[in-house]
Amino acid sequence: MKGLRVIGGFFFISICGIVSERFFEAHRFSQRNILWLIILNKKRILILSYSFSSQTRNLLNGLIEGLEESGIEVFWEQLNSVTELRFPVGSINGTLLMMAQSFLRKRYPIHPLNPLCFGQWDLIVLAGPTWSYNPSGPVLSLLDRDGKRLFAGKLVLPFISCRGYWRVHFYGLRGLLRRCGARVAAPIVFSHPTPEPWRTIGVFLKLAGKVPEAGSSWFHRFYPKYGHSREQVEDSRKVGFELGEAITAGKSLERPLFPTPVRS
Description:
The protein is an alpha/beta fold. Strands 1, 2, 3, 4, 5, 6 and 7 form a 7-stranded mixed beta sheet that branches. 31% of the residues are buried. The protein has 9 helices and 7 strands, in the order ααβαβαββαβαββααα. It starts with a helix and ends in a 16-residue tail after the last helix. It has helices at residues 2-26, 31-40, 55-69, 92-103, 137-151, 167-179, 198-207, 218-222, 230-248, and strands spanning 44-49, 73-78, 123-131, 134-135, 155-162, 183-184, 188-191. 47% of the residues lie in helices and 14% in strands. The longest helix has 25 residues, at 2-26. It folds into 2 domains: 1-41; 42-193 and 228-248, Rossmann fold (3-Layer(aba) Sandwich), CATH 3.40.50.360.
């Protein structure tokens, strides 16, 4: 009797093994499929960005490095304008014209986004520089064309690179995002570390085609570098890691996680 039970148990286990094998074969569950299932369980962040002079791009390289170190899956889509926007502008008159148009929120049409951008994300980071107290023209164009489809019902975190005057930019962007149906997280802001009035003068001269940070002139003593510092790029990496950990832990992003600006 005992022998029959052992044989029966062995037969049952064999049948279960065959059924399981057939099931996995029928559904094509290979090691690669299982790996993809594990990857899909990661938190996923979409980064949409525009960078005119590479300052935002440099910060995002650090941010993404930190996010990936924390185990976040990142997809980065960089906005490209249909008409080439040249940096530097190259003349004082051209710089003044661009500043005036940006103050009036001139739009610059952009090329279509990768279709993957319209998927499901745990967080969308919308990154770009401040142009005359406003979001850049390509970012405004993105909001006009794809805003409701991209951002409705999504959590969006503004990431701002600026000279120092970020509040009007953020408040205006927050209003536009809310009109698209987005939930807006507290912003991450990096401002140029050079003190005023030198950074405003330096940025204007740089846009006009000058190189104010070069040489050994008296101005160089007050304006040693254009844009963000290496320390800020490293800070951005740390911010990315902490942001990734906060998302993984399910912490709310409605309140600031970091000082604003992060480093000035």
